[in-house]
Amino acid sequence: MKTNKYFFSVLGFIIGMAIGVSVIGLYSFTSGPVSPAPAAGITPVTSTVAHGFFNNYIATATSFNQVIKGFTIDKAQLDAMNTIAKENSGLTGFRIYLGKDNNARNIGIVVGVDYLGMDAVKNTIFITDSQRLSPCPPICDVSSPIILNN
Asked: pLDDT class for 4, splitting at 50, 70, 90?
């Protein structure tokens, strides 16, 4: 009687292990890495297209000689940064270049930055339609207690 009790306990343990290993093995081979879908308002582009948009901006940019106090990052840029971060967790930061698309609309060009401070152009680069994309100045909250008296 004692032998049957131990036998069934060991048999149950072995069967449970076999089922657990099978489920884990099945799960690990059926669900590979999934590329995150871009959020609304962000569009992936190649570095060549991004370069063209940057050149469009530079050709019409107004030069001003002021200290940059800050920079606005809108939700679309944040979504682009989060999507890029999911693709490559080894990035140390992000860079947003100013650009103009082929319709002369202001856009942000969002790219990851590696540990050397270089643009990670082998990862996805996104453009965002951002009419409010600008450094401060000229677009600032002049009543903000953060920059008041400066």
From this structure: low
Bridge partner list, 100: 106
**Half-sphere exposure of residue 84: CA atoms within 13 angstroms, side-chain side:** 31
Integer-rounded Cα radius of gyration of the chain = 26
Q: What is the pTM of this model?
A: 0.68
40-55: b (≥16 Cβ within 10 Å) or e: ebbeebeeebbbebbe
Q: Total domain count for the chain?
A: 2
Which band of pLDDT confidence, cut at 50, 70 and 90, is reported for residue 31?
very low
Q: Are residues 73 and 119 in the same domain?
A: yes
Query: Which range marks the domain in which residue 116 is found?
Result: 42-136
